[in-house]
Sequence to fold (183 residues):
Amino acid sequence: GETNLRMADVVIINKIDSAEPENVEKLKQIIGHINPSASIINAESLITVEDRTIISGKKVLVVEDGPSLTHGGMKYGAGVVAAEKFGALELIDPRKFTVGKLSETFDHYPKIGTLLPAMGYGNEQIKDLETTINNTDCQGVIIATPIDLRRIINIKHPSTRVTYDLDEIGHPTLDEILNPFLN
Fold:
């Protein structure tokens, strides 16, 4: 990461809306120390969903990016943020519904909590993911994974996908920086 920072012409500090302001300022100081010529763009990730009615007032299962929750150590991701933003009644704990490799994942990473990590690196894990989702007693599924899981598994519950949009805050913007190069 430090090598990339040293070589960067532009650094985007994302998710400033969910970070502590003092941490954003500290990060800017570090960037300025390591690469004083880099332009810094402030941004936030706006969370959108396909169908908020699948979330609002419902008991939902949140499926997050597996590696981020397991060895990445994240406590939650975009799915939980969407559940809160769009008024989910409850996050359903998937642990009592897991099968196979997903049960092993929870045994190995007990602090995951009330999220389902999308672990699907082989046919067995993909089948276990599908079975676990379909076993879960929920009213909807929030898919917060890099790929749309519905492309590879059959989900019997109503489901909606969470995506991000980058929203630049202030100046410079990415367009302002890149347009001179493109012209």
